[in-house]
Amino acid sequence: MDLINGLRAFVATAESGSFTAAAERLGISNRLTSKYVAELEDRLGVRLLQRTTRRVGLTSSGEELLSRAPALLDDLDALLGEVTEDTRGFSGTIRISAPVTFGEVYVKDLLARFAAPHPELVIDLRLSDAYVDLAAGGIDLAFRIGTADVSSLKRRKLGELRSVLVASPAYLETHGVPQKPGDLMAHQCILDTNRRNPTRWPFGPEGQEEFIQVPGRFMVNSARVARDLAVAGHGIAFCPPFVLGDDLETGRLVALMPETVGPYHPVSIVYLEGRTLPRKVRALIDFALEDFRREGDWKKTAKT
């Protein structure tokens, strides 16, 4: 049997918790994944996984192997990649997670720019507004907006963004222009439920925020839909700048109280602690750091 395939199947199964998830991560069948792990166990003469009808768990031998096998496989991938990439460019697959709207508006184009010189490179972009488990999903890196205390992740900060309080001219003509944060309590607000506290909007600098409890007739789990509702005159939205496009320049939307709107939030790339990053993943992180600074006129609205 192929020892490397066995190790890859074992690590994917142990990290994801099931043969089905491991098979999807490896791009092979469920049956072949199970076969590779069984053959590895036969070769080593120990049971590595405890199988149940719903999930697999690790034996003590499996725990010991999992503590070292991922790093060995990462080192092998890095070695093989460096041997071939000097002459052929990057190859293989990079799996990336990103928030839905941020991924649709910006990350997809960033990845296209990065992949253009590398025809053998495969980009697997997975969009979700949930904080995806990188190990279980076999994700190489993830784009994150805001902070999250996850000790198993390393973080590289790309920059920072600040949401913009916006409404359409038609809405403001009918309902008036709020002059201070407290005025929002008398307005129709559009709530983005992807936010940690969708009904509490922050104002003021970080560490000194004032939180206003706002009413909301519309509740949506999409910043883009919140923007669309604001353009249509249904209320005031609190939007990240990347969903606004040229709305402020064209006058479709008006920025409200820009000097008081809440703090900036970091935009970061995160990846697993203690794993050797393949050369192509390190290159993507470096590319993203430069690209974020250089590309995207939408970032200007963060300074409104």
From TrEMBL:
CDD domains: PBP2_CrgA_like. It comes from the Bacteria. GO terms for molecular function: DNA-binding transcription factor activity; sequence-specific DNA binding. The keyword Transmembrane helix does not apply. Belongs to the LysR transcriptional regulatory family. It comes from Celeribacter persicus. Keywords: DNA-binding, Transcription, Transcription regulation. Residues 1-59 form the HTH lysR-type domain. This is LysR family transcriptional regulator. GO terms for biological process: DNA-templated transcription.
